[in-house]
Specification:
Number of strands: 8
Largest sheet: 6 strands, mixed
Keywords: Membrane, Transmembrane, Transmembrane helix
Radius of gyration: 25 Å
Strand order of the largest sheet: 4-1-3-2-6-7
CATH class of the largest domain: Mainly Alpha
Helix content: 40-55%
Organism: Desulfobulbus propionicus (strain ATCC 33891 / DSM 2032 / VKM B-1956 / 1pr3)
Distance between the termini: 56 Å
Protein name: Vitamin K epoxide reductase domain-containing protein
Order of helices and strands: HHHHHHHEEHEEHEEEHE
CATH superfamily of the largest domain: VKOR domain
CATH architecture of the largest domain: Up-down Bundle
Length: about 325
Amino acid sequence: MLKRKNAALQLGQFLALVASLLIVGQIGYTLYQGSPLCLNGGCKVVEKLTRVSPLVFNGVGLFFFQLVYWGLRSARGEMRRLPQFIRTVLLAGLGVEAVLVSFQYLVAQAFCAYCVGILAFVVLLNLLLGWKQIVPGFLVFATAALAFASLDLARNPVNGEQAFTAGVFASRPGLLKYPQHYLFYASTCDHCERVIASLKTNGRATVAFNPIDQVTSIDLPQVIVNAGYSPSLNKNLLTALGIEEIPVLMTRTPEGWTIRRGEAAILAYLGTPESTPASGQSSVLPGTAPPSGIPGLDGGDGCQVSTDCTSGASGQSTVP
């Protein structure tokens, strides 16, 4: 029994050291490249939705694992010599990881592979200390996760630019930089396809594309693709705003936001030339909403957000 405990402590030291080296590598990569190493698209989504710098997260993580490493080392292979604060630190680590994982699942709706790897190290370190650590560890993790899940985080989805930028799959710069347009669409919606197709002959508008489903490409020239976007954020945003049909064009002007729904209303607005200064510069007067008599302003020529309305999607904007 004593040997098993010694082996567990030695394995714990090894895991804490490996985790520390992994974080040091991530910090070095971030300092050299200017951005952290993303192992999957979920990493980029989570990074955009967090206000704390990745360097701060990694710095705290490095301190955590170094504290655990030296604490386990001080036990000299005997569980009875293990400092009590190590158990407390590991429980605190589980609580923090529960919040971070819940954030990824409930808010970002995308998992960061690097973050999940760090979670695995924290869980394993707790498991190695036996049942006296496993039981309270489970309670701490479950309590923190349930507490986070009980929060209503979707009441104010348009808080800053994060709800839009994290959901942008692609952007097409136009002749006119302003106003800023965000087109919410689905790859299976024929109405959305026709709106996107109209932009092939309309190079004036600068448009960002926010799909509510997973897409891989868009049939437009000169687009800048961002593979690490979150379609769930776009869908949740429309749901929170009470919008049940797509396509939706959200336009930001100095006066605020304007929302146009339906194929006809969007095509009518985008087909109206913007007023430009006589000097020919690219700055424009803010666009105004179309008259209420334009068909489609109140929806009716769109697809339901919650269903696949295609009768054979044209496939113009996406590919399988």
